[in-house]
Amino acid sequence: MIATINLMDTSVTTDNIGDKIICNSIVNELNHILNKVYVTNTSTHDDIGATGRKSINKADISVLLGTNALSSYFKVGRPDIWKINFKDLVSLSNKVLLCGAGWRNYQGETSILQKLTYQRILTKQWIHSVRDSHTKNMLAKCGISNVVNTSCPTLWSLDQEFCKTIPTQKSGRVVFTLTRHKPDPNDLVMIMVLIENYDRVLFWPQQIEDYDYLSGLVTKELFNEIELVPPSLSAYDCLLDEKDIDFVGTRLHGGIRAIQKGNRALVVSIDNRATEISRDTKLPTIKRSVIPDQLETMIRGSFETNIVLPHDEINRWKDQFLKIIPKKLYDHK
Question: Which of 119, 177, 203, 268 could disulfide-pair with 251, CB 3.0 to 4.6 Å?
Answer without folding.
Answer: 177
